[in-house]
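User:
Hi there, any thoughts?
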Amino acid sequence: MIKKFFAIAAIFAATMMSFSSCEKPDNGGTNNGGNETPADVCPDCQKNPCECEPEAEAAITIDGDFADWAALDASKVSVATCNADAKWTALKTVKVYADAVYVNVYFEFDADELADLSSVPFHVYINEDASAATGNDQFLGQGGQDWLLEGAVIAETFCSYNPGMFAYDESVINADTGAPAGDGDLATIDWAWADVLPEGSGIASGAGNGNKYELSIMKEMMAGMELSETFGIGVDIQQSWNSVGVLPNTAIADDNANGAVPMLQVPAVM
């Protein structure tokens, strides 16, 4: 009988402790005159721990294991493959998946076209609203896109992608014509981009394996960028700062010597 009494008492005490832990503190949400967050309030969401919502789990883990890409809803993944008659063919496939937190990019490359592995630059060009009005309506190099990320994916061996971020700058002057880049004449302008974030800021990370690579770009660090429900992306990989792979692309032709096409359209999954 005594054992039963103590067992019931223990259950009652545990239940009361549980209710007590879920009660909000009666101190206006702060201690010490409103200067400190109390111990029983979540420091992240400022709510009672019982109300704190768990963080969303990333669909893609950047680890060089690409199996999680196959588990994505294919209707939410944008894909481009290299045309056999394109001008620059080192990139074979690119996939892009954007969720509420990251813009994720996966690509495959032809290792035979990357002879110099001392530093292999990779560029991500973003048209935030998928509108041709924000620049050139065809993707090619720095062809009038809104934003640029530039960093290495290989430095002798695979390295994490930790790029600088740049904004398209319409005020850059074409030295030959005297016209600003905003007039659309980018042919002889080497660099029409303004610094936003330095390389090494932590805006992105990446990992590779074999002839494949994946990277994630953190949306909240894209200062000034406002991605629409559908936005545009183009990518290129380089050797000695010259493009050897560009996606998306198409076959070269008399009226399209570079095989340029509109950027890949990406839905912003929320």
